Write the structure tokens for this entry.
Amino acid sequence: MKREINCPECLPNTSKYRGLCFVPVSGTIVDPYPGEKMKVVKGKAKFAMFCDSCAKKIEENQECFAISIWSEYSSIPYRPWESTYIREKENGSKTEPGGDEASS
Ligand SMILES: [Zn+2]
């Protein structure tokens, strides 16, 4: 599995380079090429890092994208890794059990 961090400017280019005519929606798995899978996760950098595409610095808390590319037929499947690098946006749709719900 290939893992990449992209800045927002590079995601469209990476998607195009991979053979997609659209930019994948965060969290979905797409097929840029037969047998090839790609997943994009949008989030905020947990620490300063560099874009794997343009090498520009991504500051802590800056919006960026974690891209995974793997082969469908590989013996090594996709494994979540994004949370090591990025904090996924809390957009209300994802509520953790026992999270912020105060006991009444
Ligand atoms: Zn970039």
About this structure: The first strand starts at residue 2 and ends at 6. Residues 11-17 form the longest helix (7 residues). The chain has one domain: 2-88.
